[in-house]
Each structure stands twice: as structure tokens, then as C-alpha cells.
Amino acid sequence: MSHALRGPMLSFSADPSTAGQGAYEYLEDGLLVVENGRITQMGDAARLLPTLPEDTAIDHYPGKLIMPGFIDLHIHYPQTQVIASYGAQLLEWLEKYTFVEELKYSDPAHAAAGASFFLDELLRNGTTTAAVYCTVSPGSVEAFFAQSHRRNTRMIAGKVLMDRNAPPGLRDTPRQGYDDSRALIEKWHGRGRQLYAVTPRFAVTSTEAQLEAAGTLKREFPDTYLQTHISENRAEIAEVARLFPWSRSYTHVYDRFGLLGDKTLLGHCVHLTEPEMQRLWETATVAALCPTSNLFIGSGLFDLASLHRAERPVRTGFGTDVGGGTSYSMLQTAAEAYKVMQLQGQNLPALEAFHTITRGNANALDLGDKIGRLAPGYEADIIVLDPLATPPMQHRMATAAGNLQETLFVLMTLGDDRAIHRTYVAGKSVGA
Ligand code: GUN
Ligand code: ZN
Q1: Residue 117 sits in the same domain as residue 6
Q2: pLDDT digit string (tens) for 162-201?
Q3: Where a domain ends, among 338, 364, 390?
Q4: 403 CA to middle of ligand 1, Å?
Q5: Same domain for 300 and 404?
Q6: For 285-403, where are the alpha helices, taking DSSP H only?
Q7: What residue ranges of the chain have pLDDT lower than 70?
Q8: Bridge partners, residue 288, by sequence
Q9: pTM of the full predicted structure?
Q10: 74 CB near ligand 1 (under 6 Å)
């Protein structure tokens, strides 16, 4: 059975920072035909409508904006009750708030309820794919994938590996972490829409033996992801230098154990040095930048212009990093990225921001042929944005005069979950 969505629609085929006008397709009155969870046709409504069977159901969204679902490159599902925790920077914040909440996820009922809330919240914010940290408990991963599989969302997730500098109930061992991860990969990686990420939390909480085991897993299962944190906070960087006295840099620690590569997502990358950026570029490693978190935990300002330097452009994307991050919304995340860049005399045009949170992040995940775009063959994860969602948006939009770039800038600056009118997962409308 096919159905269709009609209305203004926007989708990117390339990066507007390099491809300009040709980077996107905008249809003022478009039609998107969906069949068995995939997009089969996209084009002007006037052209496509006469070709559809007469009984085709059409969801009509005049005045809205139809786009691919948003993609979040970095988020923690067990931190929905860590978000908005007061007054600490990274290492203290982890001990005082985060580990306390993550301990609760060894209870399967707590994990299932947490995963359920989290996924519903992502969808309410228009996020249809995310790279997600679970906890050290394998049950927390089971709970997450089970809930995601039931919703048919495309999610990437993994068991946190942590064998030191954490409370006893949140520690594994190199062997146990390896065995548990392996079993989870075999069960979940590629099952339905679920994908696995080997997840050593960060160098502070893993011994060399555990980082070695993470490298082994990545070699044995090369099409899984690897996600971890790097260079978020000055005290963290100093601690890594102390724990790995032989290392030339934080990046060198991960490099030494074979953890860099084109399916590696490094959260934060706030304080990287030039040689470290060079190495990320050489290995096609992705920097997942998390502005609301960096501001809230007081970590610093990521330097996107340096990361993107023309001679060695590092692959980048945006993540929320909830619960260090303060919003589930990729719109708000783009707005805070804009401010982080403003503070450094850099720019983030709205077209580039919307490219990043859709197709850019899909490419960063190596999923650019499956999600992040409205085009035939793509999975039908689709959102409907409302540029008039709130009184301040309505008031401001009165002066936007139908200009696409201005509309997008209003959406990212003033919009949040209220601007997500509808979310479709694999062609099915959810939560409405
Ligand atoms: N570094 C290691 N673990 C974490 C975490 O849970 N959140 C953030 N923001 N940084 C981390
Ligand atoms: Zn994080």
C-alpha cells in the first residue's frame, strides 16, 4: 500500500558550503510517495498527483516544511534524569550525577522505561536516528534495542566499556566487556534497523587492556561503529596524559589501539591540537560536536573553521549529548552551534546547519545512501516542520516574506520540539 505526503519540501543532495544552490532541492508544492517504509517518488505535486491511484491516501501539509528526520551523532539514553544537573564540570559531573543514574540501568524495568521515554522524546523532537551510549550493563543495551526495534527506528547503540575510575557497580573487565559486546553485536547488529557501536566511554575509564579489546572487536566486526569521547575538558585531557604517560596526545591514545577510522565517532573534540586534527583527517574519523553540552558543562568552544581547514578537512557533525547537553532538539543544537561559532567570528548559515542535521550527519554515519534525504530508495524517516509553531515564530515570520533561508534560520533559532508538527518512522506516522 502506498501513501503520500504533500506540501513544501526540502532535501539536500550535497553540502551547501561547497556545492551552493545545487546542494538542495526545494519544492513549494511537493509530493512524496511512500511504499513499504521507503520513498518511491518525489516531485512536484502537479506532475505526480495525476499518476497516483485514485484511492491513495495523502497527508497534506500546506504552510509546513517536509524534511528528512533529524540525526543526532552523540547522545546518552540513561541520562534523561541527569539533564539539568547543577554546577559541575566534566569529571565531577560524571561522579556526582551521571554514574549515580547509570547505576540504576542494571534494573531491566528501569532500563526499559528509560529507553521508552528516551525514544519517544527523540521522535517528538523530530530525531529519527541517533548514535546512542547505553551503560556498562548489557541489559541496558538489550532494553534499548528492544524498544527501538519495536518502534522500527534506525538506531546505533552500544554497551559502555569501563574498567576503571568508576564505581564498582559500573565496572566491567577487558574480558567481560569484550564477551558482552560480542554477544550484543551478534544479536543486534543489522537486526531490522539496529546497528552496533563499540563504546569505550573514554580513555579515563578504560585500561590499556580494555582499549586493546575494543580495537580487537572493531577489527573482528569492521562494519560496526566505534564511539567514544575526546578532548572535551582541560582536566580530562590532563588526566589522560597522566594515565597514558607514553602518549603524545589524547588522539594518540586511541590511535595506538586502532580505534580511529571512518566509522569512528569522537564526541566533543573541543581542544584538539593541529597534529590531532591532521590525524583525524588522515583516518577519516568523525568529530561529533555537541554545543549545548560544551556550554552547559563549561567545556569550551569547538573550532569548526579549524576542523574544516581546506588542506585537511575533518569530517564533522552535530550531537546533543543529552544529559550533558541541555536539549533533545537538533534545532536548538544548531542554534547553539551558531552561537559557539559567533563567539569565534565564524558563520553557520541556516542551509549548512540543516544540511548537517540531516544529510551531513547521515554521511558522517556512512548511511548517506539510506537516510537523511528525500529521494526514491531512501528510508521514509520524515518530519513535518511548522515555522509558525509559536507566537514569537509567527511574529518573526511575518517579515520573512517566504524566503527559505530566513525561514530555516527562524526555525533553528526559535524552534524546538514545538516546531515538529509530525514525525514518520519508516513511513508510519508516530505519536499523533
Ligand atoms: N565523557 C565521558 N563520559 C561522558 C558523558 O557521559 N558525557 C559527557 N559529556 N562527556 C563524557
Ligand atoms: Zn557524551
Answers
A1: no
A2: 999 999 999 999 999 999 999 999 999 999 999 999 999 9
A3: 364
A4: 39
A5: no
A6: 291-296, 304-307, 330-342, 350-355, 361-364, 391-397
A7: 432
A8: 267, 317
A9: 0.98
A10: no
